[in-house]
Each structure stands twice: as C-alpha cells, then as structure tokens.
Design goal:
The complex is a heterodimer of chains A (141) and B (451).
Chain A (H helix, E strand, L loop, with lengths): L1 E8 L13 H16 L3 E6 L7 E6 L2 E6 L11 E6 L3 H8 L8 E7 L8 H6 L3 H10 L3
Antiparallel strand pairs in A: 1-5, 1-6, 2-5, 3-4
Chain B lengths: L5 H27 L2 H22 L5 H23 L3 H15 L5 H5 L1 H12 L6 H11 L5 H7 L4 H17 L10 H23 L7 H19 L4 H14 L25 H16 L6 H14 L8 H14 L3 H15 L1 H14 L6 H13 L3 H14 L3 H16 L6 H4 L18
The chains are: A alpha+beta (141), B mainly alpha (451).
Chain lengths: 141, 451
C-alpha cells in the first residue's frame, strides 16, 4: 500500500519567501530519508517552498480570483511529502513517528488511491491515467 | 492483553517491529556471534515491547529500547554459559560495553555499520547448509520481520511446523558453527546465488498464488521485493542483485492485470496494459539499467528482467520486440539451459521468425522427451501447428494439453481449441492466433524463466 506522509510544519504559513531548513536539519532529515531507502519503502519525496512564494486560484460562485501568498486564512500548510510503500497504515504511522521534526507540526498520513479502489466505470473513465502519470514523472526526474 | 484496545496497540508495536527487527537481530548477531541466540534475544525484546508499549506508548527511539532489553537478556544468558564455555566471556564483556555505551544516548555503535551486519545476516539465513525450505522460513523471519504465524499463513502450513523448521534451522547453523561473516573470494558468488534464489522463491510463492487466496500469499511478493531492494542498497555493485530486483519489479507490475473480474487468469499478451503498474515498471527498468551499467555479461536474472522489460516497453502486444526477446532467450539458454527456457525460446522465435522455426525447437524438445508430461509443451506445439495450417496434427496436441493440465480454465481453453481444429478448415483465425504465446504462463517450477 502506498501512503503519502504530508509534512505540515507549524508556522510555515507565515514563513517569508526563501525560507529553507538549515544544514543540520537537512542532515537529520537525510538520515531519515536514507532509512526509508535502505528499508526498501521509499517511493518519492519532495520539499515545498512556503506559501509566501506561491499563489492561489479560488473558485467562488463560478468566479475565479487569484491571490498571491502568503494566505491569511491558511493555518495548516504543506511543507513537503514522502510517498512510501508499506504493508499497512500502522507501518506508515510507525515511520511517521520517526520523522526528525525540528519544531512543532503535524505529519498527516493518507493512503494513495489505486485503480482497483474505484468502481469499474470510473476505472474506464480513468483509462490512460497511469501512463500519463508515468510520462509526467519520466519527463520530470 | 485482553482489553478491546489491545489489537490495534499490538498492530502498532508489530509495525515498529517490522522496521526494527532486522537491524536489531543483525546488530545482536554481531555481538553474540550466533544468529539463533540473536533471534531469541530479539524475540524476548518484542515480547517486552508488546507488554509495555501499549501502556507507555512507543518510546522515542524504539530501536535503542529494544536493543537495551535484548542486551540485558543476553548478558544473563551469556553469564550462565560462560561458566561452561570460556569463549563466552569475551562476548559477555562486549555486551556489557555496549550497554554502557547505549546508556548514553543513541547506540551509535549499532547504527554505524549495521548495513554490513544486515548483509551478514542475509548470507547466514541463506546458508547452503540449510535446506531450501529452512532458508525461506529463516529469511522471512529474520529479514522480512514476519512472525511464525504469518509465515505459516503465507505457506498454508501449520504454525507449529514453521516454528519447528525455524528452531531446527537455527540449531543447524549453530552446530555447523556457521560464522557470522561476509563470504569472500570464490565462495561469494555461490553464496550470493543462494541468497538471490531464496528471495526469488519467496516472490514466486506469492506470484503463483491465484486471486481469492489469502492476502498473505500475494504479500509475499511485496516482502520479497522489499528484501530485494534492501539487498540492492547493501550490495550495490552486484549486477545480479539489480537484475533480480528488476525482474521482480517488472513481474509485480502485472499482478493486477493477471486476473479478470471473475478471477480467471489472463495471459500476458491479452492483459490490459493500462492495469500494469507504471511505477513498478519504472523501478524495474531503472534497476535493469543499473545491472547493465555495472558491466560484464548479464546474468540469468538480468536476462529474464530484460525479457520482461521488452514486454513492459511495448505499448500494445503487437508492438512487442520479439526479435530482441528471442535473442535474450538465446543468451539465457546458453547461460542457464533448461527445457522450460527452451520452450519459451521456441515461442519467442516463432513470434519473431515464424511458426516453422519455433516448431523445430519444440520438436527437438519432444525428441529429447524432456517435457513429455508438461501441458504447455503440447499447447505450444498445437498452436504452432495450427498457425502452420495443420489442424489435424494440432488437434491431438490440444487434447493432450487439456488432459495434462490441472487448471480447469486452461483445460476448457485447450478443449475449445481442439474442437476448433476438428471443425474448422485450416484457415488462420486472428482471434485464436493472438493466443499463441500461451507458454509464458508461468508453471510453478523452479528454474523457470521469466516471461
């Protein structure tokens, strides 16, 4: 089963543009990443710049508005993620417990949807999805 | 534990166990120089964790916690033993030293070169002094982190039988005084071969299981894959390790497409390719590229992976590069000759160069009498004869294949094809011809080739 571990650090919503973790923090995180890799469970991982460098497109009553970050109303914002392949949700939790978080924050664990989780008509409608995802990945290594 | 919350708490402890157990056992084995004792100590630590953690929560550093408990137990046992056998005195000292160090913060000594210890553990669990069955059970237990009950479920056997097998295996290792070390020199290739064989046996046990079975059986594929990836991380310069990982990733990528809604098997060329797992394909192709980049001739696993990769790369069944597959089977037949490889080669050659060339290979097999009772030999021969417009000769082959297979669905298919031979003029039927590559269905035999 694949799970995404979403990293939601406290206060990341207000982090100024260009905020990155320091070398010590990265080093610790890399040790954790290596554990995931050496255990044969790591599928993907990425870190995200703070919302102050991003933007939002919001749909309200068929109207679209674009807002540049930071976003005043956003409390929990994503700082990065891992995708891991493990036998159960308990294993994903056990891995999340090991994340070397420097400050307060949340790791949210979400199971990745697989094709067979959908009814047949949805599977038919989604035909080509897997190839598309892979092509996108291959072009973006 | 008898309260209602016990089950999830136990599952949480077991999940931590799956992450920690291999490193724990490997680190302990280095100190006590006895894999059996190391495993016993680790089990004691697991029992302690199951008792404590549901109440106290999982400790901050569960690995160090488990190691501390195991060391304490180890010191008791070693003290008792050293009265009888002086060689235990040194081991006892090392355990004490380790405990004192560990009482600081992290048990750095264990973390540092635990990779080599895990590698030693893999080689020991797959030692040739053990039977294949014992190697499989011990590997799942020591490297896969499976409980005896889980192994029993996966292998449809009794828990007591599996427990016995593991106890005997540990005793055999102790009696043979198998050292806890990395094999070197000429021995290494053979020992590595045994490791790869065990992992692939586990994978195939899961892969051969049909839909509707207990989930533990397909889970064996995932266990084998994980162990393969771990091995690849620990022994990155061994091309065949990457070859095996590539083969398993590529085969596993088709698991979801191998059966239809009714649970019936779907042959490789008839599979819906959109159901193949692209992520696993990508990983498999990467592992294959790594095996190729390490230089030298491709070994049997890498060759089988390369064949599987030809299928994975083909967008539709008709895009398959059969000439390349035939060439790869040629190489495989020279490196690891077997009648099964030869039969698969015949199919590939027939697809690449025409049924008459394939039939020559099959007829040579028939003359050698190698696969006489094997239904796929007759299924392939029948198919090639059919394609050559010789239905009268094809018919008895299909009938024989139907009589020989134990699989009801395959039996029905072979009967239909025999009837087709009887009733139809010797014309080519595209729908039936598409079924030609039937022999890539994998028989449950050791040493079978990849598709």
């Amino acid at each position: 089963m694949r799970f995404m571990m979403l990293v939601i650090p406290d206060g990341y919503g207000e982090a100024p543009p260009g905020t990155v973790p320091d070398a010590a923090g990265v080093e610790e995180m890399m040790a954790f990443n290596r554990q995931l890799e050496d255990s044969g469970v790591l599928v993907a991982l990425d870190g995200l710049h703070p919302p102050s460098m991003g933007a939002r497109v919001t749909w309200r009553n068929r109207e679209k508005t674009v807002t540049d970050g930071p976003f005043a109303e956003a409390r929990e914002v994503l700082g990065g993620y891992w995708i891991i392949d493990v036998p159960s949700k308990e294993d994903a939790i056990a891995w999340a417990m090991r994340v070397p978080f420097q400050e307060d924050g949340v790791i949210e664990i979400r199971q990745v949807q697989e094709m067979e989780d959908f009814p047949e008509d949805v599977q038919a409608a989604a035909s080509g999805f897997a190839e598309m995802r892979e092509a996108a990945r291959a072009g973006n290594p | 534990m008898s309260d209602a919350g016990a089950a999830p708490a136990h599952r949480a402890v077991e999940a931590v166990w799956r992450i920690e157990s291999t490193r724990l056992i490997a680190g302990l084995a280095r100190v006590v120089r006895d894999v059996g004792l190391a495993e016993d100590l680790a089990q004691d630590a697991l029992v302690a964790a199951l008792e404590h953690w549901p109440h106290t929560g999982v400790p901050e550093n569960p690995g160090a916690w488990l190691m501390a408990v195991a060391r304490r137990r180890g010191i008791d046992i070693i003290r008792r033993r050293q009265r009888a056998e002086p060689r235990y005195a040194e081991i006892g000292r090392e355990l004490e030293d380790g405990r004192q160090r560990a009482e600081g913060a992290l048990d750095a000594a264990i973390d540092d070169d635990v990779g080599d210890d895990v590698l030693r553990l893999i080689f020991t669990a797959c030692h040739p002094v053990l039977s294949a069955e014992a190697r499989v059970a011990l590997t799942l237990r020591l490297l896969g982190g499976l409980t005896t009950a889980e192994i029993a479920r996966a292998y449809l056997s009794k828990e007591s039988a599996v427990a016995q097998r593991i106890v005997r295996a540990k005793r055999t290792l102790a009696e043979a005084r198998v050292p806890f070390e990395l094999p070197r020199g000429p021995d290494r290739a053979a020992r590595l071969g045994s490791v790869l064989e065990v992992i692939y046996l586990i994978f195939n046990e899961g892969y051969a299981a049909t839909a509707g079975d207990d989930w533990m059986r397909p889970a064996l594929c995932e266990d084998a894959l994980r162990m393969g990836r771990v091995l690849a991380a620990l022994a990155p310069v061994e091309p065949e390790v990457h070859g095996l990982v590539a083969l398993m990733e590529l085969q596993a990528s088709r698991i979801r497409a191998r059966t239809n809604q009714a649970g019936e098997p779907v042959l490789l060329l008839d599979q819906e390719r959109s159901r193949w797992d692209r992520l696993l394909i990508q990983r498999g192709l990467r592992a294959l590229a790594r095996a190729e980049s390490l230089g030298g001739m491709l070994g049997p696993y890498a060759l089988q992976a390369a064949i599987a990769a030809c299928h994975a790369r083909a967008e539709t069944a008709s895009d398959t590069d059969w000439q390349r597959i035939a060439a790869l089977y040629d190489a495989l037949a020279q490196l690891a000759p077997s009648p099964i490889v030869e039969l698969n080669r015949a199919v590939a050659v027939a697809m690449a160069f025409g049924p008459e060339v394939g039939l020559e290979i099959v007829d040579a097999l028939v003359r050698a009498g190698a696969l006489e009772g094997y239904h796929l030999l007759h299924a392939v021969r029948g198919d090639l004869l059919w394609k050559l417009g010789r239905p009268r000769e094809a018919q008895p082959e299909f009938e024989r294949a139907a009589a020989l297979t134990a699989n009801e669905i395959e039996k029905a298919l072979m009967r239909r094809r025999a009837e087709g031979c009887a009733s139809l003029a010797p014309a080519r039927s595209t729908t039936i011809a598409r079924r030609a590559p039937a022999p890539v269905r994998r028989p449950r035999r050791r040493g079978q080739p990849g598709e």
